[in-house]
Specification:
The protein has 11 helices and 4 strands, in the order H-H-H-E-E-E-H-H-E-H-H-H-H-H-H. The chain has about 300 residues and is mostly helical.
């Protein structure tokens, strides 16, 4: 049944997408058409998201003074005082709404954008590559959304609560610029979305034969060091708390990538025990083994050639 389904997909879905040897100019025209479609769809979605930009910004402010409780699937308020938002430039508030609406528009239009990208590149791929690229794009998108959701529900509340509490305990009055807060939050969402691509990237590298699970396990200490270095670069604040919040999940996802490399990595051919031995040596060894296993005569050790003259 699986072979029949695979054959049907090959004949009905993949073969009609074969490249018709289009000239370069036709490829450029097609690229322009598909890019225009993607931009138009994203612009239409942006109009809708900008209409709800105020509501989106309010949702983005939820992790500031609330903690998500997984057992109750609800947000619980923290002990932080009310934190007012201010804007320091005449167009700052408007620009933040545009930024948030644009990001959400790209996120919502991403399936259609990926569809246009798929339709553009698929004619130049072989059938085996097309079967591989489709699931890869789907899993990649799901991993990015999962990372962004993990950051919004778990990482951002802890990071913001720690930073605001530290300032309040030091005797400062919290007043946050809307531009600084939106930039901080969106950067966290973007970075964690990319961090959750680490297992997929390692699995892809193992699938291509560039690395394997034993190699990744051997260099886990360097991966730990690299996680903290990358977190120090990407963290919008210099405090070690946020650095650990970013480096910890990154290192754990490195081990998830090792598991993926072990399960889906390129299988190496089984090495024969006689690899590298010359045929002459194998023949001599075989003849010697045959001579040792041959039965000896009762009176003499020498066995003559049949039909020949004995000793």
């Amino acid at each position: 049944m699986l072979n029949k389904v695979t054959q049907w997909l090959q004949d009905s879905v993949f073969k009609p997408l074969e490249d018709k040897k289009m000239p370069v100019m036709e490829h450029l025209v097609e690229f322009q058409v598909r890019l225009t479609r993607a931009v138009i769809v994203t612009a239409v979605v942006f109009v809708g998201t900008f209409f709800y930009a105020d509501a989106l910004v309010k949702w983005l402010r939820v992790p500031l003074q609330n903690m998500f409780v997984p057992s109750a699937l609800s947000w619980e308020p923290t002990d932080l005082p009310t934190v007012p938002f201010v804007f320091l430039a005449p167009a700052e508030a408007l620009w933040q709404n545009v930024k948030v609406a644009g990001l959400f528009a790209v996120v919502l239009a991403a399936p259609y954008i990926l569809h246009e990208v798929w339709r553009f590149i698929v004619p130049g791929l072989h059938a085996q590559e097309r079967r591989f690229v489709g699931p890869f794009v789907f899993v990649s998108g799901a991993a990015f959304y999962t990372g962004a959701a993990f950051s919004f529900f778990f990482v951002l509340p802890f990071a913001l609560n720690f930073l605001i509490s530290y300032g309040v305990n030091a005797g400062f009055v919290p007043q946050i610029s809307i531009a600084q807060y939106v930039g901080f939050s969106l950067w966290f969402l973007l970075v964690f979305g990319l961090i959750f691509e680490v297992p997929l990237a390692l699995t892809l590298m193992a699938k291509l034969g560039w690395v394997d699970a034993p190699f990744l396990i051997r260099y886990w200490k360097w991966a730990l060091l690299g996680s903290f270095i990358i977190a120090a670069i990407l963290t919008p604040t210099p405090d070690p708390f946020n650095q650990c919040l970013m480096a910890g999940p990154m290192f754990l996802l490195y081990w998830v990538g090792i598991f993926g490399a072990k399960c889906f990595g390129k299988k190496k051919p089984v090495e024969s025990g006689q690899a590298g031995v010359s045929p002459v040596a194998m023949a001599v060894a075989g003849a010697g083994a045959a001579g040792m296993s041959a039965p000896k005569s009762s009176g003499e050790d020498y066995v003559g050639v049949p039909g020949g003259r004995g000793r």
